Amino acid sequence: MALYGALFISAFFAATVLPISSEAVLAGLIVSGRGDPWLLLAVATIGNTLGSVVNWILGRGIDTLRTRRWFPVSPERYEQASRTFRRFGEWTLLFAWLPVVGDAFTIAAGAARVNLGVFVALVAIGKAARYAVIVAGGLWAMA
């Protein structure tokens, strides 16, 4: 049970301000044969999606928070993500897993007041697809 908790924590914090690689943790668990692959996929997806919800909440208060030193996205990255978000809308959330701009997309979604249910659904789909590729690759490597 501890390995699922460790994966959840790494996935959660990987979606927030800490530079953690949940993909490496997941891949390591898969190739070492530890844990059920489907359950690992679910735990990683849920943890990473909930971490993105933290970013959505930060986005809701962006006007008062973005000048803080600890704010997870630079002004330049936020502006770039905001332009992309305005151009493509909520569909950008399918790419919340991307390095560099993914966190900014989730913050922009909060600032844009995207419905939380829509946000969670789109972010979870994108993150689950990314983790599914990692799980499949790990299982293929073990074969």
TrEMBL record:
Transmembrane domains' residue ranges: 37-58, 91-112, 118-142
Keyword tags: Membrane, Transmembrane, Transmembrane helix
InterPro entries tied to this protein: DedA_domain (IPR051311), VTT_dom (IPR032816)
Limits of the VTT domain: 23-137
Source organism per UniProt: Rhizobium loti
Protein name: Membrane protein YqaA with SNARE-associated domain
